[in-house]
Amino acid sequence: MLTDLAGAISPRILHAPARLDGAARELEEYFAGRRRRFDLPLDLQLSEGFRRRVVQQLPQIDYGATVSYTEIARRAGSVRAVRAAGSACARNPLPVVVPCHRVVRSDGALGGYVGGLAAKRTLLELEAA
Description:
Elements: H1 2-8, H2 12-15, H3 21-31, H4 49-57, E1 67-68, H5 69-75, H6 82-90, E2 103-104, H7 117-128
Parallel strand pairs: 1-2
Helix pairs in contact: 4-6, 5-6
């Protein structure tokens, strides 16, 4: 996985793995229930256009809350682009940190998730506790 990331972004990441220590700490705090927002600098160079606008909206969804794919499409500037919003969530390069698990279908069903529905359910349950 780190090799794939290095190929997409920069091989420098392989030479400085300690740069991920902050991310690891914040993820640990999140899963322990001590963190509700991530303070990591985000590099969204792997996203562009509408996809980037969707990804930029995801951290605005409050911890423990959900919004529909329709609503996230609206917030990203195109209420009719619901499928594109779903696709942007599915291709989110930083799941959990950029909380696409908080986006659900309009009927309240979970919809999809890059880590699988069990993972999405677990994340939403963690945040509901």
